[in-house]
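lol ok so funny story. i was supposed to be doing the assay writeup but got distracted and ended up predicting the structure for this chain instead. priorities right. anyway since i did it might as well share w the group, maybe its usefull for someone
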Amino acid sequence: MMDDGMKSHEQLKLWIEEKKDFPDKKIPILFRNSIPEIPSTTYGTFAIYKYPAKFIPQVIAFVLKRYAKRGMKIFDPFAGYGTVGIVSRIYGYEYELWDLNPIIDVIHETATMKPPRINVVDLVEELKNSKREFIPKWSNLNYWFPEEFIPILSKAWGFVHSLNDEIKYILLIPLINVTRYFSYGDEKVHKLYKSKYSKRKIEELLKKDWKRIFYTMLEKEVYNLLRKIIEYNYLRPKEVKYRIRSGIDTLETKLDYEVNILITSPPYLQAQEYIRSTKLELFWLGYDENYIRNLSKKEIPYRSVDRMEIHSEKYYEFRDRIEEPHLRMLYDRYFHAILNVFASLGEKVANYMCIFVGPAKIRTIPIPIDDIIIEHLQSLGWKHEVTFIDTIVSRVMFESKINPASGERDGRIKTEHLVILKKE
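and the output, tada:
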């Protein structure tokens, strides 16, 4: 049953076409209820790994069903988990994904697999008896893992790195999840963080038969992944052309050919440390310290960006309300970065740009990111069709009653906005 104010897909279609009751072009919606063929936000392989701030699949499905036509190419320059590609396959659209974080390669290859025929018990037994070893090139390895766990992790990862077929992808995500649990990192928080909970967790594990727990947990994770792969294939994904460009700096990269629809969710205004959030995983995947450090330096908060003329009155209005110099610098970097990206990439977008953002706060000031994007891109010839206002029902990212950064009552994002812009 729809919540009050939330319209069905058919109601929305009719109301948008008739332009009734929405003079500001802002329409409330609950995306998770808008796509009946995808029964939940965690269905299939849409939630096999806890990537921070990822798209729910219904948002992409809604855009494709409403705006895409046969033969169109879909593009996401801040792909993150890669949900745009995973959903595009269901509806038969060619796609291209870019992201700074190379973990997208592992997620995508796993999430789009055909169900393999394997004996999970035999596979885990083979891993357990492997003689191969792998140690990450990470100077802080012993800070994040007790020395007792290193041999069993080294053996498991050595076995996985020795594989070169689809079985490797049956093991990678499960082993990533178990490795995170067996670390001093708090797996419930979207950053690499040693908490009181995670210290107690390791202390308790060390008192138990932790080797048996490790292999039992890995086996359960593999079974869970296989179930998710089967669910995804129930949606009948199509074989389509695609390209994944990982480790790519979207802020400095140009599209070399035309795409039809850009669908993306740019980094959050004050939650942009995606490389740091997945650092533990990247080391075990085989990336070295210098490479990971260089990726981190390319995240928006830690880099200089080219300044541009921003055509938005709201941008300047809200900028003037920010008093702290370091917060004003963060604000400036963010908007100069993302608006530059959309202006540049938009030159190669033939039909629509669909941008999903949350109205984040700086201190207590809510920033209308969607309106600033709209005002600037309208000055470049884009027409604002509509903005859908989606209520956040639940979130995976860490949430509490008190914001740990400010010590004040938590006022985190309650809605997210899908801006639809059409090329005129």
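The chain has two domains: 9-112+237-423, 120-232. Residues 1-8, 395-411 have pLDDT under 50 and may be disordered.
back to the writeup now i swear
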